[in-house]
Amino acid sequence: MPNALPAPPARSFHHAWDRRAGPRSTGSPTRVVVPRCTTDADLGPTTVVGMKLPLSLTVAGPAARAQFPALAAAAGLVVLRVGLVLLRPWPLALAVDHAFDDGSASGPDPLLVLGLAAAAGVLLSGAIGLLDMGSLRAAEGAAERIGAALRATMFQRTMTRSLRWHDRMRSGELVSRLTTDVGRVLDGVVALATSFLPDAVMLVGVLALLFAFDPELALIGLAVVPVLAAFAVRQRRLIKSAQQDARAESGRLAGTTTDLLRNVRAVQAFGRTDRASAVFGTRNRAVLDVELRAIDVDARWTPVADIVLAVGSALVLVVGGRHVLSGALTTGQLLVVLAYLRDLYSPVRGLTRLSAVLAKAGASATRVRDVLDNDEAVVDRPNARPAPRLIHEVHFERVGFSYEAAHPVLEDFDLRIAAGETVCLLGPSGIGKSTALHLLLRLYDVDAGRILIDGVDVRDCDQRSLRERFAFVPQDPWLLDATVAENIAFGNQDATRAGVVAAGRAALVDEFAGRLPQGYDTPLGEGGVRLSGGQRRRVAIARAAVSTAPMVLLDEPTASLDPESAAGVIEAIRSTTTNRTVLLVTHDRALASIADRVVTLSSSRPPARGQLQNAGRR
Ligand SMILES: Nc1ncnc2c1ncn2[C@@H]1O[C@H](COP(=O)(O)OP(=O)(O)OP(=O)(O)O)[C@@H](O)[C@H]1O
Ligand SMILES: [Mg+2]
Fold first, then answer.
1. What positions does the domain ABC transmembrane type-1 occupy (predicted)?
2. Using omega within 30 degrees of 0 as the cis cutoff, is the peptide bond preceding 606 cis?
């Protein structure tokens, strides 16, 4: 007889999360279009009327708030669906009681009753399917929008986080957080919207109906619920901890992978492909181990829950059967009770499942929050003002700085550069020359002393305006995966095409751009891989040439150039830095000779002040 029971309601959303967890977990590519960005200030409260919200909701907070109507609509549709699911056992029960059991001749035609019951069953199932579709669309659509906004916020945050933080964080790890972890957080949001309310409503509804029908049966059926609840609470802790390990290990794998991919040239050149595969393999196996452990923890509850629920159903069947035999219950009513029991167990299962999904989402939400959190970032002070125009001087005043506390790089570093002056910074490798330039740009903040521009501490300046005062040619030319022209224009947001081409000509980019397939419009590939080292450097110099900033910072601009090209570049630097203040790091004697002054950094404390080596500039 139990075989004739109406099918339990399909938990389509639970399946939906399971499906979604697959592609998201593999870090599917993210969309770039983003509806809106949020700020730290938007990171909403962690509690509502004293109740702790799941971390996945808090982290997705501002974006989730914007999608609240869609999530509420999804929840509403699923609650409606619950109503229909509760009606579903009735057609069969009525058919059983009236078409077969009720032998009276005065009753309705049994065939008509059967036909009506069948039609009602189909209609109910159809309506439930439509509601499923509507709620799935609303919830998943909202989740994707939340995901896009969350990724945008995270990306914006990573762009402004301190380089100290970036120095520690590997880019693959970040990508993993932006894709997989955001996906897991969204699973939590969808689960909350489509499961919590409907499951709770369903639970209360079924309980009320069961008690109305047969309180004794209801109590027997309910007895198993506390057992499951206790199990779910324990599971939640275990799942969260297993997922945290799994996510951390996956992040490490992503970090190692990007590192090896970025260095594929070195790997091949040194014949280390086997070694690279071994490094990858170790990480890969570690991920496999922790993922298998996490799956094991997650799956372990299924047989326990099934057995506990089956025991509940069996008890109800035995006691209910006796009630039917004693005439207290009709067969149809017993069927309804058993069907409701399944319907009772379905939200119980749903809620335990929700607890597991939230545990996973929570593990990922912690990793997302780490990215969004404030750190020792170089932040604008509340009363930050535009940086001075650099009319008088730049002054490094007894500057101290270290990347790691135990290893100071600069101590008591003192240097004045007058406006219009060209100063060359010399010193052995690793002494801190590039670091001095980075501090002036405020890529890092000084630990001691001050850096002043026209008497104003750079920490009191608005970062954006501060960086507009400098044109910078870094030691490692950082090129983007963009065209030559776009890479040059990066140096000045107001650059015109003519300005870009003129800068290209001055920095001798013309020479090779003419031979590229699309000239200045040739894409350069990741990191400018399609150019030689010297060509990349010239693009970086063109970037400084297109800038109108009053001060130019050059870090080994002629390194990796042949003497002839270097002479051309020196000429370009000389012409593009006329009337500008220049801080130059170079070991190239020819280039150093354009400086008004050479300052030598040494490891003695305080660093040796520069001697005037070449006053005859220009
Ligand atoms: N991101 C970083 N994290 C930790 N330590 C760093 C970092 N960047 C540089 N250092 C350390 O700081 C010191 C100074 O580095 P810096 O790049 O300023 O040297 P440099 O004088 O420019 O050397 P080179 O002539 O080789 O370019 C070095 O000892 C280096 O190991
Ligand atoms: Mg350097």
1. 72-360
2. yes
